[in-house]
Amino acid sequence: MYIQPQMNLRPDYHPDLTVVLLGTGSPRAFYGRAKPGAAVLAGDKTFLVDCGGSTVDQLIKAGIMPQRISDVLFTHHHYDHNGGFFDLFITSWRTHITAEHVFEGRSVPMQVYGPETTKTIIGKMRESFEFDVNLRISYNLSDEAGSLIEYTECNEGVIYDKDGIRITAFEVDHRPVYPAIAYKFEYNGKTVVISGDTIPVANTEKHAAGADLLVHEAYNKSWLDALIRQYPKHGKALSNPAKYHTTTLEAAGIAQRAGVKHLLLTHHIPAPVANKAAEEAYIEGMAGIYAGPITVGRDLMVFELK
Ligand SMILES: [Zn+2]
Ligand SMILES: [Zn+2]
């Protein structure tokens, strides 16, 4: 075997609602923590929630070929959530051939969902790809339909309802980034809510009520306060997360009030080392608020809701 095969390929069909964490980091540059994002698999569909800088590499590591992606759902337009879109857009459109597989490139327009502002921001990005896109059509003979984007902007409401898969967008609060939204996925009797970036809001509790899995962003306030004491000169930058994110203890409160079955933390600030001791310290105090299982998300973790 001389040609690099695709490893750990996930099945084409997922009978159970499945969440793959692609990145559990933040805008900060932490080793082993890609920019935040998740793939949600249901039936033969693969939805991408956010598209940060390492999305294509993380998809390949997760065994999900980028060619499967024709639906990208943005929560908001901070760069850690959209910076990988150029790579994803072109890579998903290219046919990729190994000795064992042919992964046909996307031959349909990319479906892009997001809050208002999405068409303007992603549209400008798409304009910047035009030079490469034209070469791929004229020289590489890529399917022209794949060069297009169709947009669905919606801050609140059902954005997808087909083949038993329903996706609902709802507003959260990440101001000054406005609007910012979260997504609820329902499939085969199971429900997942992905919070996006937000302070604690009642809307999340409402939509996550009884959910099987709540993927919520969180930062550890005492760890951040310790860094501020250590580096007072950088106090303003370090204290920014407190203005528009959720503390670990607040996330526990949301999970408890919503009665979710499992709380999965992501978008860690500051990111803990991916080991048991560090993660237990990171979630200190949460168990006293929320009695259910709490998982500190790591990149490439998979959750199959059976
Ligand atoms: Zn973010
Ligand atoms: Zn953000």
Automatic annotation (TrEMBL):
What EC numbers are recorded for this enzyme?
3.1.26.11
Q: Which UniProt keywords apply?
A: Endonuclease, Hydrolase, Nuclease, Zinc
Pfam families noted in UniProt: Lactamase_B_2 (PF12706)
Q: Which reaction does it catalyse?
A: 3',5'-cyclic CMP + H2O = CMP + H(+); 3',5'-cyclic UMP + H2O = UMP + H(+)
- Asked whether the keyword Zinc-finger is assigned, the reply is no
Domain (Metallo-beta-lactamase) ranges: 46-268
Give GO MF terms, alphabetically. 3'-tRNA processing endoribonuclease activity
> What job does the chain carry out?
Counteracts the endogenous Pycsar antiviral defense system. Phosphodiesterase that enables metal-dependent hydrolysis of host cyclic nucleotide Pycsar defense signals such as cCMP and cUMP.
The protein's name is: Ribonuclease Z
Q: Name the source organism.
A: Paenibacillus silagei
